[in-house]
Write a structure and sequence with these properties.
Oligomer: single chain
Radius of gyration: 25 Å
Helix content: under 10%
Number of domains: 3
Structural class: mainly beta
Distance between the termini: 97 Å
Largest sheet: 5 strands, antiparallel
Shape: globular
């Protein structure tokens, strides 16, 4: 009996030692964030049988214009559908051509999603939203970008019944009006894509990375195309195995990517060789970034989604910040603050990082700043937006508003936070999935910011285009904003663009006066049609100082101040 008992004890010990690695591995897998989020098809496709519409939302102020883009053929909102996770591409050869993609839910009673998109040819004033790409096929996590020639690429995640994940990339040579049949691009869950427009040897290269835990080529998490998207390299790994992040191209064609590692903070990977089609992608030693917090998700503000992704961008200007690398993310703070927008800078090509800076200027440890998003303009200005609950009433602490801030000194200081949108409840309009997506996307130009974002202002979850004018941030709204006259940039160096709207056709006079009231320039004096107008004013022959630009049409007049500088 004693011998039998001893044998049982020994067998139990041996069994524990055999199973222990598996048990530990399983526990680590559960606690590892890379296994905590993946796209799944839970519901079958459910069409909207009785389609009803309502007016689409749009809003304009001196510093922000926004318009709903997931609309029907008449530009109206479709009641009962949903859209989120928008991504944006702007044609560099014609900035009036813009494409936004999103996760399209045709019926909020089903979380079956498709590759929705919309395009504009007039700078975002109106949008055309056709049927989804590859309609009827489960697709998610859209990411868009453009190449130097103005071709638009749409990277779309899909999966089959056996939970095999992969990405297809669609190409449009028509500004989003039509798409090719797609190219298989390996990929996996929460992929991101960037296209090289550096004019170097890698110009036109397409780079992609994703979460290797849900991928067609585990443990690979990276690929590239060096032939304009006709084919993609075999999968490879990335140092630090980052997830939930983005990519950026430096001024010399170097590739950067950022994401969450298995540990705290963020990890940044860099490759100098990826741009060379004749070379394999090799990586510099990864660097880790202290953000005084971590990427997170499944918080009450967005119960089934992320607080946001990590964003990386590089200063490609000819200014003193050229080559600086910046990262930004909404993080769950080490002090248990539910969400702050944190920023960090590297001035040595990503080798080392400055201490993190909090961009949102509120002082409450209990409000949430989520979906932090960043981009850098060609002139070096850093732009950041996020959703903010600082003004939420006590009965609903999740009421959010869109906020904005910018930096013109390489991230040392940031402008006063500016509220851009009206308040909305992110918990309405969920498409049988308790979240408003996982990310926004934005592209900066020298004059302002192109933004793709989601909100529920009209009582449903929809996707919007926005354009932010940084030069009017912090300026009180004019009560006589008859023509919505704005100019950008302001202060003015040589040239500025005047943008205004006419309610009816009429003779329009736009003139510039000095501080003494003397006329110095008539910009236009002609009959113009109703609608939006843009005029480029060449001020290079005027002395530096303060001027006033006045628009007159019929009996109505509006004036703005122009500041001319070197």
């Amino acid at each position: 009996m004693k011998s039998t008992f001893t044998n049982l004890i020994m067998l139990s010990i041996i069994t524990v030692f055999i199973l222990l690695p598996t048990l530990v591995s399983s526990q680590n897998k559960i606690s590892d964030i890379r296994y905590m989020h993946n796209e799944t098809q839970d519901d079958a496709y459910l069409p909207m049988m009785d389609k009803k519409t309502s007016p689409a939302y749009r809003s304009r102020s001196s510093n922000f214009y926004t318009i709903q883009v997931n609309v029907d053929e008449n530009g109206d909102n479709i009641i009962g559908d949903a859209a989120n996770e928008p991504s944006i591409a702007v044609d560099p050869t014609n900035p009036d051509r813009i494409v936004i993609g999103w996760r399209q839910f045709d019926n909020v009673m089903s979380n079956f999603r498709q590759a929705g998109y919309s395009y504009t040819t007039n700078g975002g004033q109106s949008w055309t939203s056709p049927e989804p790409i590859d309609a009827g096929v489960f697709r998610s996590d859209p990411v868009l970008d453009a190449d130097t020639d103005g071709n638009i690429y749409y990277n779309s995640l899909t999966k089959d019944a056996s939970s095999n994940y992969w990405c297809d990339v669609y190409k449009s040579e028509t500004g989003g009006a039509s798409w090719d049949d797609n190219t298989y691009a390996y990929g996996g869950d929460k992929q991101w894509m960037v296209i090289d427009r550096s004019s170097g040897i890698g110009d036109g290269n397409i780079y992609e990375f994703w979460n290797s835990s849900f991928s067609s080529c585990y443990p690979g998490s990276y690929t590239r195309s060096t032939d304009g998207g006709d084919s993609y390299d075999d999968c490879d790994g990335v140092p630090g195995n980052p997830i939930w992040g983005t990519l950026a191209i430096g001024p010399d064609g170097e590739l950067y990517l950022v994401g969450a590692p298995s540990g705290p903070g963020l990890v940044v990977a860099k490759s100098i060789t990826a741009q060379d089609p004749s070379s394999q992608t090799t990586w510099e030693p990864q660097s880790y970034v202290d953000m005084d917090g971590n990427l997170s998700g499944w918080r009450p503000i967005n119960p089934s989604g992320l607080l946001g992704q990590a964003y990386i961008d590089v200063d490609v200007s000819d200014g003193e910040g050229r080559g600086n690398v910046y990262v930004l993310a909404s993080v769950f703070r080490d002090n248990d603050d539910p969400g702050d927008v944190m920023f960090a800078r590297s001035t040595d090509g990503g080798q080392t990082w400055d201490s993190p800076i909090k961009v949102n200027d509120d002082f409450s440890p209990s409000v949430c700043q989520w979906f932090g998003t960043m981009s850098v303009a060609p002139n070096g200005r850093i732009d950041a937006v996020w959703l903010d609950t600082r003004n939420a009433p006590g009965m609903n602490m999740y009421i959010s508003e869109l906020y904005y801030s910018y930096s013109i000194d390489q991230g040392e200081t940031w402008s006063e936070n500016e509220r851009l949108s009206e308040a909305f409840d992110p918990h309405v309009g969920w498409p049988n999935q308790n979240k408003m997506g996982d990310y926004f996307d934005m592209i900066s130009d020298d004059n302002g910011v192109h933004l793709a974002w989601a909100n529920t202002i009209n009582g449903e979850q929809d996707v919007y285009y926005g354009y932010i004018n940084p030069w009017f941030v912090g300026v009180d709204e004019k009560q006589d904003n008859i023509f919505s006259l704005i100019n950008y940039p302001n202060p003015v160096k040589n040239k500025t663009t005047l943008k205004y709207e006419l309610q009816e056709s009429n003779i329009v006079n736009i003139s510039v006066y000095n501080i003494y009231g003397n006329l110095v320039k008539v910009i236009t004096n002609e009959v113009q049609s109703a609608g939006m107008h843009n005029i480029v004013f060449d001020a290079s022959k005027l002395a530096n100082g303060i001027y006033f630009c006045t628009i007159t049409s019929g009996s109505k007049t509006e004036t703005i101040k122009l500041t001319l500088v070197d």
